[in-house]
Design a protein that fits this description.
The protein has helices spanning 32-47, 61-73, 124-139, 153-163; strands spanning 5-10, 52-57, 78-80, 146-151, 182-188, 191-198. By secondary structure, the protein is α/β, with parallel strands linked by helices. It has a 6-stranded mixed beta sheet with strand order 3-2-4-1-5-6, with helices on both faces. Helix 1 packs parallel to helix 2 and helix 3 (124-139) packs across helix 4 (153-163).
Amino acid sequence: MVASQIHLVRHGEVFNPERVLYGRLPEFGLSNLGVAMAAAAAVDLVERGRPVRRVIASPLQRTRESAAPIAAAFSLPVEIDERIIEPTNRFEGKRMSGEHGALRDPRNWPAMLNPLRPSWGEPYRAISARMLAAIDEAYNSVTDGDVVLVSHQLPIWMVHRALAGEGLPHDPRGRRCALSSITTLSWRGEGLVEISYANPAAALQAGATDVGAV
């Protein structure tokens, strides 16, 4: 037997008053709004009545904090998997837009030459491969019930596109992966498929800041 469902949960809003691209930088935890978003995701999973057996998070602070209310709701520890971390990005710590944004600086333009890879960070294929490997291991790690993986927007979106048979290169503005959203996967026929997408923190997102990665 294996897991019934895998839930890919994105972290909540991060406290980021300077609006920099935080990537893998340390000490970027949830804002007060982000804490409420993470709680909304936990409530959503509880209300589904799903038997969650494991809660696994990326090692970054914002994902561990977002996993905490889910783990508490199911009386489970928060486990860590390095494979579901945010991708590397050469623009970490920089503001991307605005008068002095990184996109306006000619010194940064060589990093933008190949958006299909992308040239500014970890290749899309590498992100997809490590995420799918972590999901496969999680899927086979329990004899029944569900597993929750708390990760980041781009890694979750790579899984979505890979399972949908879509090309991995994409316009970041078109990602459907809101803060504290839940993308649910299950095994159907010969493979893993996406069966639902939920946005339990939608009511909290109007004033949220979401500029953490590209």
